[in-house]
Amino acid sequence: MPRPQAEIETEANPMMRAALAPQARTLVDILAATAAAYPDAPAIDDGEVELGYAELLAEIAVEVDRLAAAGVRAGDRVGVRMPSGTRGLYITILAVLHAGAAYVPVDADDPDERARLVFGEARVSAIVTAAGIETTGVTREDSGAAPASPATGAPDPGDDAWIIFTSGSTGTPKGVAVTHRNAAAFVDAEARLFLQHEPIGPGDRVLAGLSVAFDASCEEMWLAWRHGACLVPAPRALVRTGADLGPWLVRREISIVSTVPTLAATWPAEALEPVRLLIFGGEAVPPELAERLAGNQDSEREVWNTYGPTEATVVACAALLDGGFPIRIGLPLDGWDLTVVDAAGNPVGEGESGELVIGGVGLARYLDPAKDAEKYAPLESVGWERAYRSGDLVRNDREGLVFLGRADDQIKLGGRRIELGEIDNALQHLPGVTGAAAAIRTTKAGNKILVGYLTGPDADYDLAAARSILGEQLPAPLVPRLAVVGELPTRTSGKVDRDALPWPLPKPIAATPEAGLTETQQWVAGLWDSILGAEVTDPDADFFDLGGGSLAAAQLVAALRERHPTIAVADLYDHPRLGALAALLDGFAPTVAVEERLVRPVPRAAQLYQVLATIPLTTLTGLQWLTWLAIVGNIAAWSGSLPWLPHL
Q: What is the CATH number of domain 513-587?
């Protein structure tokens, strides 16, 4: 059921304002209310253990005691870096909240350097890993947090719930602190939005497939815990397989999914049949995907497109998709305010385009006071004392905003918001590099890939070694495919003109006949070109060095299965080089070919003999039925029940 139309003010001051924000409370309050209403309902099921809500609260209490014994106090910040797909990860997050502290997540697969940077910037007092709790010696005063009582305790709405780091334009990630008031308002506002005709409840099972370092993971968790549904974590290795995750959704009876469009596009249609709520976010929804998943008028499934930066608490607006065009990002959540402004900061009229500015209850804050003052400055044209300038261009439409793109160098890739400046900074520190710039490029298959352009190195520069260096500094999705160019094109301002960077990349020197590719290698190389935009002539070329990621791997395996149905994503990770992968495919059992035979018409003489042969066969069949009929007639005559029936 669509949400109520947002209020849009006069043409002189066009602004979208939804209903009043939900009542102030904390995430701890939300979980307590749910556990009181559904104490025996499943709260989390990681495939090994299923915990009910009452059992979950007991596990949280044990973990709170462990945190307290390690010195964690109310008001602290606690780093969390644990493997995905486990109940322990989510119990730890809830325990940190119940201790009155804020959790600072880092993906377990991210480089150690990234973890040290994030935990250092956040000034965490303790770090929880699978090995246990490690204290850092940082106090509340060191971190800048407000003084608190020495004991753990329930938080207040104004206390921080989580601090999530986004990509930074200066090369340093930006910490965004979200309070319990922000977070609980978001959770309660979404409860007013989705599946109003048949609300989420204890019978539902919610996929938890996103990294907890990604703010959309908060939506997954609280879609379950706000309504008494069950959170079902998926292992990260499984999520990366893309297409293989689809059958897992069916086996685990998942009914609620929040994900990025790129991942959902790899799932077979039958995987989403039991899903009654599908939420997209993190990146633009392709029209063909919206038409395929939301265009069926007979389906009772709701498909939503959501939009929101981390700085405005996960989601600021949403639109119910119907498969039509344009794809909207919709109207504000209750308590969120939206306006679209021109370059001077003045609101634009209906149908005009400009930068989206967000106000209301969802506004978070930067840990960096100077950055916070810059990005959350007052917007005098509409009377807001604090407003977040998103940097996103949208079209102002009373039926729902339409996303048009970025106004700066920030981009979204695979659901992650990325500052290209952070990638530039890492590229420029590579050995032998004199200049560098990153850009997003689109392959023939429509995939968005990140490409890093380098100047300075010679033709034999070791790109694989350079990617290894980047992998130690950046999360895997931020490590670009590398290309050496003669120069970086610039604009009149002196800045790099990213749009003018070469694409497709210059073709490599043609391979000699002796180094030619086999038939299988040529077929696989063609798929790589379509998915990665990489023309491959070397059997030693590596799929992941060319920019392949988990989603690209899932797409490649889906294409390979047209000829080799048994190949798995794990096979690609084990055989990333072109020659090795082709050899693996050649080693599979060949498909049995069906010999084509010419079907000739039956001669007329043979047809006549066939007709004559059916006469005795038909006679015998008729005698069989006549015998049974005679028996029935005699029995009926002897009993007197059917005197009119002839008998023999």
A: 1.10.1200.10
pTM of the full structure: 0.71
Q: Residue ranges of the domains in the chain?
A: 410-500, 513-587, 599-648
The pLDDT score that the predictor gives to residue 10 is 41
Residue 1 has pLDDT above 50, yes or no: no
For residue 248, what are its two tokens?
Answer: 């897992």
pLDDT digits (tens, 9 = 90+) for 549-569: 777 787 888 888 888 888 888
Q: Which CATH architecture has domain 410-500?
A: 2-Layer Sandwich (3.30)
DSSP line for 237-291: HHHHTGGGHHHHHHHTT--EEEE-HHHHTTS-GGGGTT-SEEEE-SSPPPHHHHH
Q: Cβ neighbours of residue 586 under 8 Å, at least 6 residues apart?
A: 518, 520
pLDDT digits (tens, 9 = 90+) for 598-639: 455 667 666 777 777 777 777 777 777 777 777 777 776 666
Single-letter amino acid code for the residue at 444: K
Buried b (16+ CB within 10 A) or exposed e, 122-146: bbbbbbbbeeebeebebebeebebe
Side chain identity, residue 561: R
Rounded-to-integer distance, Cα 452 and Cα 313, Å: 31
- Calculate helix-pair angle for 27-37, 180-191, nearest 10 degrees: 40
Per-state percent for the chain, helix, strand, coil, to nearest 5: 35, 20, 45
Nearest CA among 251, 259, 255, 248 for reference residue 201: 255
What gap in Å lies between CA 359 and CA 17, rounded to an integer?
A: 9
Which of these, 203, 204, 220, lies nearest to 212 by C-alpha position?
A: 220
116 burial level (CB within 10 Å; 0-12, 13-18, 19+)? exposed
| Cis peptide bond N-terminal to 157, omega within 30 | no
The whole-number average pLDDT for the span 422-432 is 82
Round to whole Å and give the CA distance between 502 and 67.
53
**DSSP H or E segment with residue 8:** strand 7-8
Output phi, psi for 193, to 5 deg. -105, -50
For residues 4 and 538, give the distance between their C-alpha atoms in angstroms, rounded to a whole number: 57
Same topology for domains 410-500 and 513-587, yes or no? no
Average pLDDT on 209-231 reads 95
Secondary structure E strands in 397-511: 402-406, 410-413, 416-419, 435-442, 448-455, 481-484
Mean pLDDT of the 312-335 span: 94
pLDDT at 510: 44
pLDDT tens digits, residue range 40-76? 999 999 999 999 999 999 999 999 999 999 999 999 9
